[in-house]
UniProtKB/TrEMBL annotation:
Residue ranges of every copy of the OmpR/PhoB-type domain listed in the record: 7-102
Originating species: Bradyrhizobium erythrophlei
Protein name: Predicted ATPase
DNA bind region: 7-102
Gene Ontology terms, MF aspect: DNA binding
Annotated transmembrane regions: none
Length: 915
């Protein structure tokens, strides 16, 4: 730098860029930021208003180094932060570079010269250029984090690494700054503050570490003046218990030591001007439900666990079962490195499985810290005790109450559990803010609304404190009351509307609802709260297709509800309908489901609750279909249509038309079914009433189109049918509701099979089985196996098809459900005939025809196909006396097809299993 440039200052309104002193000043006051960030400002101001490309900027600021754009963005952000309200002065040209706005006037300032740096006086035996101890083991999973911290350190004067105990702040700080030491000509020092009990000793500890010889009282100001303009890096480690003294020292250094950079590690941020905060994240952990070894091994938390276990047990070699348990351990320990190291030490001695099983009492189990570690880092409990003791009593109180939320919390929920404490909303919000700053509470970034959570390990610790203070019962009661009031409609028995936003909020609280219900039905709980909450939340379980849980929760609530109490009638009715729905999907007792619905329908009639009448009837139709009682199904569908016209809104009418179309198809009346389906598709689901959509499953265009395709195919309108089938497949792409998806996949699979598109049928049947298994939707899974067996028979794979069909029939016989009995008995007969077992085939056909007559009250939709198959089987017997009988079967089949107006009598009904 020339002598002239040493005195050059660029001025623009309140700002000055002093190239000699390397300062950015606002109204004469220096604004602290890092040396690399200043280099960026220098390049921009020297280019006036011209565009500086990204490549040119990186070449000027980091000559000869390979630097990514992320590093440049960090430093540009530091410049913007320093400029405060004028952060828009560095203008970004998207994808190209930057220019500095404003009119910057260069001025030669007399008396402006580089500051005179005082020498750093060291005592004898002074430390070398740095005192950073080498890391004994490789730092796992922190490569990206270390690089980001390096970028921050070169962009800001003060960088604080914060996070909960054991997250690895110190190790990350040392790893990051080690590679920056060549940038600091006067070296770098780490100052250990953990052992200090008196905040007043912070300045003297820093002075001692730096080897400064100071006379008189040692203060932050005197230490800073002694350091002066030396170019050094200072790491202040473990600051939380002396945070105010450290903040004062750091602020003094930024003012008096223009070339000193400070890195602090603390569970609480410093809260000073110019500070950049990096919240150290946990290590990456595998997602639940993923068991593939290659998947699990790619996560850093797992890598750390295995590395530390092997270090203590050289023969350790995890197999697949161990890996699944290791993944669970890492998740339950929140990816916190210190906790994982404790667990690995135990696993080296006890084995992985015992450690996984013992995590319920993690604080007793995880005690094997390093002998040389600080006392507060030798056990997991000690690590948290250290921070907990630093909290004021009001924050401890709030923390233990927040532990009652397993699924995170909002400000309203937090206020609710503090109702008896005298905390108002403002005090709770301030307390949460403080706990976040001290790394006890984390912001939940998964949604748009403000929400917070506790890491599982911290929550387990706080729950212990809740029990110790005898507050668990009162906190659980407040928690359960809050969620009951949040989800229960104002008027009992009245269905509330659920917008998409409401539904998302309901789903998000599922873990909190589970905890509230567990407490409500416990010996210490309040069953009335649990009953109300179960009724309110049952539609959400159905929306999520969590039918097993829905069944268990509703049955538990019903058992707790006093019978013959008039006030309980609406609650009992709602519980009965939801329980029957869950029983149906999971293939529980059909007699129980039917009895529940009949009683619920009687209650709905007595209460004149039209919504509940339609809900009960809709489930009865599903049961009638699945038991082959098509005549009863049509009577129920006709009644739903009457109810829908009385209510008069599109959702109910659309649903009623779906039911009528399905029942008409099963009776072989495809033309009338088509008319109803065309009405269905003309309706758009009413916005903002998601509960009725959940309750009636009325919002499923893809399945409706598949059903319409079947009706058109039956009538011989092949081109129209294929077009609707294609549209159905297209609309399927956006489907995400598992039970609605099952219904749609079932319809598409059948339609694809009818049209000879066996590849699509095979693919969608496999998908249906997978979705049904994942939702415990045993009815749909069994229906899928029936489809698969029939498809195999039609492909000529008779033996395999018969095996699949018989397994499905065995499931139906065992559970009492009969899914499209006549159709799949026909497929069984075809398979038997295909391997020459003609007598058994005829027996199967007689069973199917008897079921058809009983269910349809005459001849149903599949009767023509049954007669055609029987004729084919009779002809295969090659007996002259059976030819006439075969011809009679063909004649009857043709007559029935004409009566039904169906040119393709074997197409089937995709809606034979409405949900």
């Amino acid at each position: 730098m020339s002598e002239a440039s040493a005195n050059l200052v660029y001025a623009c309104e309140q700002w000055e860029i002093d190239l000699g002193r390397r300062e950015l000043r606002s109204r004469g006051i220096p604004v602290p930021f890092g040396g690399r960030a200043f280099e960026i400002v220098k390049v921009l101001v020297q280019s006036a208003t011209e565009l500086v490309t990204k490549d040119h900027m990186m070449e000027r600021v980091w000559p000869g180094a390979i630097v990514g754009e992320g590093t440049l963005h960090v430093h540009i952000s530091a410049v913007r932060k320093a400029l405060g309200p004028d952060r828009g002065l560095p203008k970004t040209a998207s994808g190209r570079g930057y220019r500095l706005l404003g009119s910057w006037t260069p001025q030669q300032r007399e008396g402006t010269a580089p500051p005179v740096y005082s020498p750093l006086t060291r005592t004898s035996g002074a430390p070398p250029a740095n005192n950073l101890l080498p890391l004994i083991t490789r730092l796992i999973g922190r490569t990206a984090a270390a690089q980001f911290v390096r970028d921050l350190v070169s962009a800001y004067r003060v960088v604080t690494l914060t996070g909960p105990g054991g997250i690895g702040k110190t190790s990350l700080a040392i790893e990051a700054v080690r590679y920056l030491l060549p940038d600091f000509e006067d070296g770098g020092w780490i100052v250990e503050l953990a052992s200090l009990s008196d905040p007043g000793l912070v300045p003297s500890t820093v002075a001692s570490t730096l080897g400064l010889k100071l006379a008189g009282e040692i203060s932050a100001d005197s230490v800073a003046r002694a350091v002066g303009g030396r170019h050094l890096l200072l790491v202040l480690d473990n600051c939380e218990h002396v945070i105010d003294a450290v903040a004062n020292l750091a602020e003094t250094f930024t003012r008096l030591c223009p070339r000193t950079t400070i890195v602090a590690t603390s569970r609480e941020v410093l809260r000073i001007d110019g500070e950049s905060v990096y919240r150290v994240p946990p290590l990456d952990v595998p997602a639940p439900g993923q068991a593939a070894p290659d998947y699990i091994l790619q996560y850093s938390a797992v890598e750390l666990f295995i590395a530390r276990t092997k270090a203590l047990n050289a023969g350790f070699s995890p197999h697949a079962e161990d890996l699944a348990s290791i993944a669970t351990i890492c998740r339950r320990l929140d990816g916190i490195p210190l906790a994982i190291e404790f667990a690995a030490a135990r696993a080296a001695v006890l084995g992985v499985q015992l450690v996984a099983a013992g995590l319920r009492d993690r604080f007793a189990l995880l005690t094997a810290g390093r002998r040389t570690a600080l006392p507060r880092q030798r056990t997991l409990r000690a690590t948290l005790d250290w921070s907990h003791e630093l909290l004021p009593e009001t924050e401890r109180w709030l923390l233990r109450r927040l532990a009652v939320f397993p699924g995170g919390f909002t400000i309203d929920a937090a206020v609710a559990v503090m109702t008896d404490t005298g905390f108002d909303a403002s005090a709770v919000l301030d307390g949460i803010a403080n706990l976040i700053a001290k790394s006890w509470v984390a912001l939940d970034k998964s949604g748009a609304a403000a929400r917070w959570t506790l890491l599982e390990t911290i929550r387990a610790y706080a729950l212990e404190k809740l029990v110790e203070h005898a507050e668990a019962g009162i906190a659980a009661e407040h928690h359960a009351l809050y969620f009951r009031d949040l989800f229960t409609p104002q008027a009992r028995g009245a269905r509330s509307s659920l917008s998409d936003e409401d539904l998302a909020r309901h789903v998000r609280e599922i873990d909190n609802v589970r905890a509230a219900l567990d407490w409500s039905f416990s010996s210490a709980g309040d069953q009335a709260i649990g009953i109300d909450l179960t009724v309110a939340y049952a539609p959400v379980w159905r929306h999520l297709s969590q039918m097993s849980e829905c069944s268990e929760r509703c049955e538990r609530a019903l058992l707790s509800l006093e019978p013959h109490v008039t006030a309980n009638m609406p609650l009992r009715m709602e519980l009965q309908i939801n329980l029957a729905s869950a029983i149906f999907i999971t293939m529980g007792s059909p007699e129980q489901a039917k009895a529940l619905l009949i009683e619920a329908l009687a209650t709905a009639d007595a209460l004149n609750d039209l919504n509940a009448q339609a809900g009960a009837l809709s489930m009865l139709i599903s049961i009638y279909f699945s038991r082959g009682e098509y005549g009863r199904a049509q009577i129920a569908a006709e009644r739903i249509e009457q109810i829908a016209h009385r209510i008069g809104d599109p959702i109910h009418l659309r649903f009623a038309y779906q039911q009528m179309a399905a029942t008409l198809l099963t009776r072989g009346r495809s033309r009338e079914a088509q008319q109803y389906l065309e009405r269905v598709l003309r309706f758009s689901a009413a916005s903002g009433d998601r509960r009725d959509a959940i309750y009636y499953n009325s919002n499923d265009h893809a399945a409706d189109r598949a059903t319409l395709a079947a009706a058109l195919w039956m009538q011989g309108f092949t081109d129209q049918a294929l077009n609707e089938a294609r549209l159905s497949l297209k609309e399927l792409q956006g489907a995400d509701h598992p039970l609605l998806l099952c219904r749609t996949l079932y319809g598409i699979s059948r339609m694809s099979k009818m049209t000879g598109d066996f590849a699509t049928a095979d693919r969608e049947i496999a998908r249906l089985i997978e979705v049904a298994k994942g939702s415990n939707a045993h009815l749909w899974e069994t229906a899928a196996h029936f489809l698969k067996g029939k498809l195999l028979v039609e492909r000529g794979e008779f033996a395999q098809g018969l095996l699949v069909l018989r397994d499905a029939f065995e499931t139906c016989d065992r559970t009492g459900w009969h899914i499209s009995y006549e159709e799949y008995k026909g497929a069984l007969a075809l398979g038997l005939a295909g391997i020459g077992r003609l007598d058994e085939a005829l027996i199967a056909l007689d069973d199917a025809m008897a079921a058809d007559r009983k269910g349809a009250g005459g001849r149903g939709w599949y009767a023509p196909e049954l007669f055609r198959i029987k004729g084919e089987v009779l002809l295969q017997q090659a007996a002259d006396q059976l030819v006439l009988a075969a011809e009679d079967c063909f004649t009857q089949a043709a007559q029935m097809v004409r009566e039904q107006g169906a040119l393709f009598g074997s197409c089937g009904s995709p809606s034979a299993l409405p949900v």
